[in-house]
Amino acid sequence: MAEALFWPALFGYGEAVLAYSSARFTRLGTWGVRLGWLAQTALLALQAARADGFPWTSWAGSLNLFVWLVVGTYLIWGCRPRFRLLGLTVMPLVVALFVAARIGGGTATGDRSHYGNLFLVLHVGFVLAAFAGFTLAAALAGLYLLEERRLKRRAADILRLKLPSLVTLEQLTTRAILISVPLLTAGLVAGFVRLRQHGGGIDALMGVTIAAWALYAAFIVLRPAGRMGAYFALTGFALVILARVVLAGSHF
Amino acid sequence: MRLSVVGISHHVAPVELRERVALPLDRAALLARGLGDAVCLSTCNRTEVYLAGDDELPALSSLEQLAGEPLSSVAYRMHDEAAAVHLFRVSAGLDSLVPGESEILGQVRAAYDAARPGPFLDRVFRQALALGKRVRAETAIGESPASVPSAAAALAQQVFGDLTGRRVLLVGAGRIGELAAGSLSARGASIVYVANRSHEASAQLAERFGGEAISLDEVPGKLGDIDVVLAATGSPAALIGAGDVPSRHKRPLFFIDIAVPRDVDPAVGDLDGCYLYDIDDLEAVVAETLAGRRVEAEHAERLVALEAERFKEWRATLDVVPAIASLRARAEEIRVTELAKLGELPDDERRTLEAVTAQILNKLLHLPTVRMKEAAAASDGSKYAEAVQHLFGLEEEKR
Q: Using CA atoms, how far apart are residues B167 and A249, in angstroms rounded to an integer?
């Protein structure tokens, strides 16, 4: 059954990548994202039902959940025909991470939930939701830098291959970070409560996550504009990738 | 029923001739009504009359009267499918001077609304208007600017998004600067300052845009609180240097320099948060977008071809409509006559009989009706129509 849901989801996301490469098929791409996300939602629901709890305990499982959150965030904030190139930035990443989650066994059913503790479920849920928001913010920041460079270089095709305006990209990046930081804060608080209950030390992943939190908190306080803001968002995302991909195995 | 069109456009007639036959909307509608079932479309690039029928000579005579000279050598005349394709291309913006320009669709709609044509032209024009909307929705043909002033405004939108409330400083009071400022203003920007060597000219332009006239010396001092600088003077040397621009930490500053020689030092473009486009850059952007429009036009032509095919099929079905109508009328007449023979009946029984016989009739005639329309679309319609008329004696009825 999980197979029957994984492939439609991957097909939907993959179709979106192809469709977003041409302005003519943007709407088709959006439908691919929507249908893929629905299939992945059903997959996650099936995993949760079979596990009788929170089954995304492995790095691959949490990557699966993370992909779902990224696509969900994209659907809410960025899935508009005018933002085709944003889709072209986010969706290939989504496909790659989703495939990685499958290779790691994160899309299969049958794992029992190891998270009996509500605080742990909240911790993982909030942290992953925040990471999804930071991923979107990084994609927007990347687009900002690209568009800024094209404007500086006075690219002749700037109105033909249209990106959202600099101000729009900057506002969306800021908004994504503003929403994600409280989520990360809540996730960290839940994690610390659980740590206090069960004991244990701070590992590398926790250290990197706290560093990411500090960086994004600095972003909110300083509100760096323009290129500086984009560099902030991308540096934060590098920490997120470090935590999600490189150090994920060390935490579970 | 035939569709015809006669007219002149920028393809075949110079502006001196086009302006003589150009009509305001009310007069164009009056001309159309004088010609019977017709629609007159008159814009700065074309005046043409669409007719339900094949006699376009009265329409041509009317245009010649306006022109004051014979038009037979320049006017185009088209019929049926060719005329429909022409109308479809016009409403899609494919026949315009700048392919994909958006005004023409509104002009076609206005001409159609004003003329209030009969059912045949009504159907054709509704199809053309729907196609025009579809072309704009499904292709990017009208999205990119096609002139330097509109490119300047579109580039400002690439920086700021919505231009509502964005503050513009216009340096120079010449025609091209005024046009670019108008384009920015039309998109919501406020022209807050107009600077010029001649105070009278800047005051005049500032009044038009609701801004303030300032001298050229005041320009550097105003750069801190504006978003867009539009420079278009005839000054022989640059008026704005990199040293004049205050540091921009939070807000971008966009320079549009359409002056030759340039008014803004190119070093300004290297400053953080500053973006500078000169006339060559803008012309390159326009050339690129026009090339893009041509690519999109190919897609739009395919949509036109699809609509032309639909028009052809629909028009062919019109050949069998009289036969279908006669057949149904004959069947209805028989039904009513036979029911009348039953004499007096209780109301509920009569209602039941009415309903049952009408249903039988509809079911019986449904398939022949559909088949005749299909045959008509496949060019066999007239044969089927003749056969039906012969088999049911409809011709004799007529006689």
A: 53
Per-residue DSSP letters for B305-370? HHHHHHHHHHHHHHTTHHHHHHHHHHHHHHHHHHHHTT-S--HHHHHHHHHHHHHHHHHHHHHHHH
DSSP 8-class letter at B246 = P
Other Cβ atoms less than 10 A from the Cβ of A60: the count is 19
Give the number of other CB atoms < 10 A from CB of residue A200: 10
Q: Give the Cβ contact number of residue A95 at 10 Å.
A: 18
User: Would an 8 Å CB–CB cutoff place A170 in contact with chain B?
Assistant: no
Strands (E) across B151-301 are located at 167-171, 190-195, 212-214, 228-231, 253-257, 274-278
Is B44 marked active-site? yes
B354-377 pLDDT, tens digit per residue, is 999 999 999 988 888 888 777 777
Distance of CA A20 to the CA centre of its chain: 19
A168 to chain B, any CB pair closer than 8 A? The answer is yes
Contact at 8 Å (CB) between B205 and B198? Answer: no
* Triad A19, A20, A23: Cα angle to 5°: 95
Low-confidence ranges of chain A (pLDDT < 70): 52-57, 59, 77-83, 110-118, 246-252
Chain A residues lying within 8 Å of B291, measured CB to CB: 160
Q: Which tokens go with B41?
A: 């479309």
Strands B228-231 and B253-257, bridge-based pairing: parallel
Report the C-alpha gap between B259 and B236 in whole angstroms: 10
Query: For A171-216, what is each residue's pLDDT tens digit?
Result: 989 999 999 999 999 999 988 887 777 777 778 888 899 999 999 9
Rg (CA), chain A: 18
Cα separation, B180 vs A93, in Å, equals 41
How far does A149 lie from chain B, in Å, by closest CA? 10
Is the ipTM higher than 0.90? The answer is no
User: Any idea which residue has 């012969």 for tokens?
Assistant: B390
